[in-house]
Amino acid sequence: MHVNNEMLLAEKKGCDPMNALLSPVLTKRLANFKLTSKQIVRGGHKGERRSQRLGSSLEFSDYRLYSPGDDLRQIDWNTFARTNKFYIKRFLDEQELSVSIYLDCTKSMGIVKGKWLRAKQLAAACSFLTLANADRLRFTPIASPSNTYPDTKGKAMINHVIDFIDQVSIAPDEERFGQQLLHKSRAGKKGSLTILISDFLDDPDNLFSALKQMQARHQQVLLLQVVLPEEMNPDYVGDLQLIDIETTKYREVSMSQKVIDQYKQLFENHTNQMKSFCQKRGMELIVCPTSQSLEETVFSTLMHKGWLRR
């Protein structure tokens, strides 16, 4: 099993939640970036995002001719002096981005410490990027005994949220991510950026229903698939008893190269089915193998895909 240095450091006893999930070096670097909304920002409160709607910020948009009822203070008298016509200055509205993060807490996510740690690290990184840029955050652990972290905003809340994520526990019983997400997503905000963090190794029917529900609420959806190297490319040999950790069902298997090749093909087909579904609906699935460092996933993969910018 692959275990990188950051995973070993995070598991040291006495490490506070912030350092366990996000190192000081990483948070310093994250502070220079923000999550990118590829759609019009329609938050209901003032923030630091530039919406395509017009408002009262100091960032100039364009001019239009004066109409009766317009605010006379917005008339550009310099333009009037040149054209002898009344023009109104228009400005971009400043609004916050609402970000909803759903973390899969079903048993398959906790089967290996490194996988569960990486999922929580990604949740922490996205939460940090949200709160550090005056955007509004809602964090929901799916299938966990832990409750949803209520809507919050501001840099002062970063440590509280990171601590909450660090304490989130794995589901004690048999639960299905898609089924639980379908129920929880009904409370999602319209027009929000929604980030799903899971291995997505379940029957996708309920997940697809939840995604359709999010689409109907005009949410922009990003799916981060956390997978172990051995889940993508198993190297087991011999006669094995494979146990489904979520259902406890088992199957006797003789692991030959033919069986491994069949598994790889099924895994690829499943991933392609998910990607195809997302692409048709303007969503995106990004595979995040734990063999990559967290920094590589965030600053290379997510930035290259256009989800992160300065």
What does this structure look like?
With 310 residues, this protein is α/β, with parallel strands linked by helices. Helix content is 36%, strand content 26%. It is built from eleven helices and twelve strands. A six-stranded mixed sheet has the order 6-5-4-7-8-11, sandwiched between helices. It has a two-stranded antiparallel sheet with strand order 1-12. Strands 2-3 form a two-stranded antiparallel ribbon. Helix 7 (177-184) runs parallel beside helix 8 (205-216).
Secondary-structure blueprint of this entry?
Elements: H1 5-10, H2 17-21, H3 24-30, E1 34-35, E2 49-65, H4 77-83, E3 87-95, E4 98-104, H5 113-131, E5 136-142, E6 149-153, H6 158-167, H7 177-184, E7 193-198, H8 205-216, E8 220-227, H9 229-232, E9 238-243, E10 250-255, H10 257-280, E11 284-289, H11 294-304, E12 308-309
Parallel strand pairs: 4-5, 4-7, 7-8, 8-11
Antiparallel strand pairs: 1-12, 2-3, 5-6, 9-10
Give the spatial strand order of the biggest sheet. Answer: 6-5-4-7-8-11
Please identify the structural class as seen in this structure: alpha/beta
The backbone outline, from C-alpha atoms, is: elongated
The number of helical runs is: 11
Keywords for this structure?
11 helices; six-stranded mixed beta sheet; alpha/beta; 310 residues; two-stranded antiparallel ribbon
Gist of the model:
This protein has helices at 5-10, 17-21, 24-30, 77-83, 113-131, 158-167, 177-184, 205-216, 229-232, 257-280, 294-304; strands at residues 34-35, 49-65, 87-95, 98-104, 136-142, 149-153, 193-198, 220-227, 238-243, 250-255, 284-289, 308-309.
